[in-house]
Amino acid sequence: MLADLNEVFQIANEKKIAIGAFNVVNFEHIQAILEAAEKLNMPTILAFAQTHEENDIAYLEEMGPVMVLMAKRAKVPVVVHLDHGVDLDYIEKALKLGFTSMMFDGSSLPYEENVKMTQKAVALAKKYGVTIEAEIGKMAGITLNNEGITENRKSDRSMYTDPAEAKDFVEKTGVDCLAASFGTVHGEYFAEPNLDFALVKELSEQTGVPIVMHGGSGVSHEDYKKVIANGVRKINYYTYMDKAGGDAVSKQGPYKMFSDAAKVGRIAMEKDVESAMRCFVNMDENIK
Ligand SMILES: [Zn+2]
Fold it and tell me: Does the structure show a pLDDT above 60 at 286?
């Protein structure tokens, strides 16, 4: 069934868990995620990021209706979320397709500009009755802003979100949740992730809203537990799911038929998503 972020955050807050948000660029991603969520009877988030379009991988106007249809048919609450929207016209396209949630990412803008643009994005979210996530602080990895895609693999503390600024930002904009920078990286990690758990706690206490962790792939299960204990309620996870599918196909191939390869990839991705979800929702006690 279709849900928005506030509905799934209610469940997450009660159970002190995080909800996984998974980017989808093909039908096998959607199947893998929903099969895992239904198996565990847990809510989930299907996300489409504006960057996928820039990379010529998938198109919102094609993926969006399929995401909404599959979310409606699911037996668990499913949020259909536009991830990293950098322009409001693009975000509105998603909302017109029936997305229940959006992220406006103005993190590459100067602070005051980010506040102003996020306020406009909040007004748009209200118009459509959907939830909104926004971001302050800078994250390492691949980023899309108005100048296109940039890549910076180095994460340093000067990029981290400042708790006082985060408090001010949430008060001024009224966003439902906040994506923050505390050491994670978008895409693959080239060094051990070094997360600032005390900062997560401070951000959570100062803002009073759920904290969103981007760059969730490649973080150890132990670290997931720690960020969740400190107030993270949404974890964006994509790269390792997609990689699990790619690895399985490479190992078990070659294939003559694409549909055979796609099935192998889908099953491997479902396993990877299930393992991540079990950790996020505290159902992994007996699993290594
Ligand atoms: Zn992100």
Answer: no
